[in-house]
């Protein structure tokens, strides 16, 4: 991609952002396709993270920080706190625990002692297809609560997301995971949920949280807490399974 080639030609301290109106070759995790119609906020962002820093030692956390930044971009606006945007581990934005309306993809390249990170994210702002969008949720809240919240624009939400992300990275670099996890857990959809490990007949486990490296922690009956790696597992919300991919 153009931005992938450009990122190594820029001065060290300069970030790079590309905003697309429409995307025809979107990628998801594991080679999935991400459909991006008009009305979707689409962005690729380049950031540099020193290897010898809190975040540089925990690169998988970046997708969680970006997901949190998207949700916060909406829910930190006065009056919009009750819009039901939530986080699904490891990298999805959900309406409640019902429907996906966004996602994050992170690619990192280590050059000497600096991680060059390409962050791609997309979320539905003004397009009701293929699932649901943020402005649908705002309209729903207005109907149910009698509020008169205005619809939001993709440009505004991309700008807010990047601003919130910068702040979250600063906090993480200063305080590590504990600086951001309380905020993350406020929005995530998994607290106390029961799942089956390794298949429909697998052992029962409870989701505990995420560990210091951003991997999911589960507590299996009769055993301790163990971490589950996102790339070897997928999370099937419909069947409440953590299954090997």
Automatic annotation (TrEMBL):
Domain of life, source organism: Eukaryota
Annotated organism of origin: Phainopepla nitens
Keyword Ligase set for record: yes
Key words of the record: Ligase
Cellular component aspect of the GO annotation: cytoplasm
Domain BPL/LPL catalytic span(s) in chain numbering: 1-173
GO molecular function: biotin--[biotin carboxyl-carrier protein] ligase activity
Alphabetical list of Pfam families matching this protein: BPL_C, BPL_LplA_LipB
Family recorded in the similarity comment: Belongs to the biotin--protein ligase family.
InterPro entries referenced in this protein's UniProt entry, alphabetically: aa-tRNA-synth_II/BPL/LPL, Biotin_CoA_COase_ligase, BPL_C, BPL_LPL_catalytic
Protein name: BPL1 ligase
